[in-house]
Amino acid sequence: MPRDDFTAATKRYLALRASHHCSLCKVSTVGPSDEKPTAVTMIGKAAHICAASPGPGARRYDPTTTSAQRSDISNGIWLCANCADLIDKDEVRFTADWLRRAKAEHEKSRKIGNVSGQGDGDIIAIGPSIVAVGSVQRTSPAGTRVQLAHFVEGNGRELFSFAEGFDRLPERDRYILLSELGFGNLLLRAPTIERTNGVYEVEFALQEHLTRISATSGICGMCIETGRMISGMEVLVQNFERTLGMARGTWFANLEGGSDLSDLYWRYKNSPWFARLAMKEMIRLSCLPTFRRDAKEIATPLACVNRVDRVEVPTFKLVDQHLSLTVEFDIEGLGPWVGGLSVFVSMPEQLEESRATAKLHADRIAQIEMTSTAR
Ligand SMILES: [Zn+2]
Description:
The chain is an alpha+beta fold. Helix content is 29%, strand content 26%. It has helices spanning 8-17, 67-70, 81-87, 96-109, 156-164, 233-245, 261-268, 273-287, 348-374; strands at 30-32, 40-42, 44-48, 76-80, 122-126, 130-140, 143-153, 175-178, 183-186, 192-196, 199-204, 220-222, 229-231, 305-312, 322-331, 335-344.
């Protein structure tokens, strides 16, 4: 009899909903590996509440359920390897009902933005590779203090090495973004990391707020679709959509520039994490200056946006490869603005292809520059 295994997507959602922590013993199921800098060790398992197939050793197998029910996400629970082993050794203690309750309680405790105050908080990004959920504890002219509830990407070791190796990081990577406050910035100096009872606290000072271009400064431009001259909010919306729709690494003149929205879409499609991470990405593009060799003045990609207050994704359905988003921005010279954006989402194969092409062009230009200076 075939096993009714979970699909890769179901496993991923179980892990995300459990925020990569074991639903029983609460240990983190993902961490760094010493094999290479990018390697991770994953000890999590999408375990079956009712066994995937009957037979010796199968626990809680329920013959009245269908194959589809057995491989459905409702029959899964995210566990560490030890706990996954344990629940399959003791059917008396770990009944199906008991496991369903444990799963529900764990997912509830991991819910973001709980109004009870028990919530983990909002997204906090520390540099490009650490994303945590946490809350702001204190903020004063001297600095800000945040508490991290758990990591979404990265881990404690990476956090310490971010602070430790701060001076060696590229300038553009030295930032903190706070979804709770809707903004972020480059750091003034290395952050201080403290760990008390397993909880990380990060204290830092942000650089001075960059003065944004005012929306009332008479910006005008040409509509890329109709060619007619447009001004005001119309130009801004077009700029927002273009900035968010240009994938990182696809423009040869600035391989570090661009947005991660398409990548996030494919990674977190149909999950509530997408809107949260899209908001973090918009904060990054609205608060961090563009790092370009040829930049004449300091500007932010999402010009005029002071703060990102809300990002909603009504549907994940793409229309002509465009995704509709509802956003609330605080715009310089205008104040709060709520509007809809239609953002181009590159297909995974388009991303791969345009990145390869951009890289090729950039390399070629670098080569030409080298030859001409050598002459
Ligand atoms: Zn466990």
